[in-house]
Write a structure and sequence with these properties.
This protein is of the alpha/beta class and about 350 residues long. Helices cover about 40% and strands about 15% of the residues. It has one domain: Aldolase class I (TIM Barrel).
């Protein structure tokens, strides 16, 4: 496949760059000419088999494989992700106020483990800038035929007691421009953010967002919550009218030994799989079919994607695996899922 050959040639060069610089080079390049990039990628990628189409709550997906938040924070390359074969795309995390994020370096590769550590700190241009970009994309006819969601977080400068209004600012700007919203209360890189997963803070926040939003609202939870806390957060999400739950975010734990594990930040990638799988199982158990669950964490193969779907996930998301497996991973997952079900085209 052309994508495989291109990736094999470019990966050694990209991995010589600082991780964040390589990230910006890729996303920025795709964003400078999004329609051209999408056309080129679409010609090289395989479209999902029609039989992979599914639903996550009210959302209709052409594939259960989605792009997780974090890769395209400011929605620069949305047409390209659709062209690669994703069934849905989540941009962000975006905040009400533009912010630079944490000091660099703040993104680290662990190639031997196919893992990342990041302490980006919600660096983004703000909800208003994202809204303007999304509006231009819609008006230009470049909006993809798949659901696009926005992951929203709390601005660092906003006190926890004022978090709801901060999130609602993003909701008011993005509500009619995206297909769904995800409330991120689980990043480990904004001080105090994970406290919003506690019932007394989470319930009023989700109720306020759900009441203000005209699109489905999801909530993203951390893998570091104990089972009882996860169950409680699921109950709050259901009672607040959320359309679904995304489990899980990055972890503060270190499932491998590596010199870079001394770096602060959220750990993601292949070694997250055992923890993420168990937490997803617990969330599905707590949800009891009342709301759909999207599984995230360590998904880098057909077998792992299928395992989450077999567990009861309505769909899965990935991000870190793209860094190590390359852009053709999406086509391989789509084809593999169809083949494993005897539905390959």
């Amino acid at each position: 496949m052309l994508l495989d050959a291109t990736w094999r040639l470019s990966r050694p060069l990209l991995f010589q760059l600082d991780a964040e610089r390589a990230h910006r080079f890729i996303v920025g390049s795709l964003g400078r000419a999004p329609r051209l990039a999408a056309n080129l990628l679409g010609a090289a990628a395989l479209s999902p088999a029609p039989e992979l189409a599914c639903k996550v709550g009210p959302l209709h997906l052409r594939s259960p494989i989605g792009l997780a938040a974090g890769l395209d924070k400011d929605g620069e390359a949305i047409p390209s992700w659709a062209a690669l074969g994703f069934g849905f795309v989540e941009v962000g995390t975006v905040t009400a106020h533009a912010q630079d994020g944490n000091p660099q370096p703040r993104l680290f590769r662990l190639p031997a483990h196919r893992a990342l550590i990041n302490r980006m700190g919600f660096n983004n241009h703000g909800s208003a800038a994202l809204a303007a970009r999304l509006r231009r994309l819609r008006e230009s006819g470049g909006w993809p035929e798949i659901p696009v969601g926005a992951n929203i977080g709390k601005s660092k400068v906003t006190p926890l007691d004022e978090a709801a209004e901060d999130y609602l600012t993003s909701v008011s700007l993005l509500d009619e421009l995206v297909d769904y919203l995800t409330v991120n209360v689980s990043s480990p890189n904004t001080p105090g953010l994970r406290e919003l997963q506690q019932r007394e803070r989470l319930a009023p926040l989700l109720e306020a967002v759900a009441a203000r939003s005209s699109v489905p609202v999801f909530v993203k939870l951390a893998p570091d919550l104990e089972e009882s806390a996860l169950h409680e957060a699921v109950e709050v999400a259901v009672d607040s009218g959320c359309a679904g739950i995304i489990a899980t975010n990055t972890t503060n734990t270190r499932p491998v030994e590596d010199p870079l594990c001394e770096e602060a930040g959220g750990f993601s990638g292949r070694p997250l799989w055992p923890l993420a799988h168990e937490r997803v199982r617990q969330v599905i158990e707590a949800a009891s079919d009342r709301v759909p669950v999207i599984g995230v964490g360590g998904v880098d193969s057909v077998e792992r994607a299928q395992a989450l779907l077999d567990l009861g996930c309505a769909a899965v998301q990935l991000y870190s695996a793209l860094i190590f497996e390359g852009p053709s991973l999406v086509s391989r997952l789509n084809h593999g899922l169809a083949a494993s079900s005897g539905r390959a085209g």
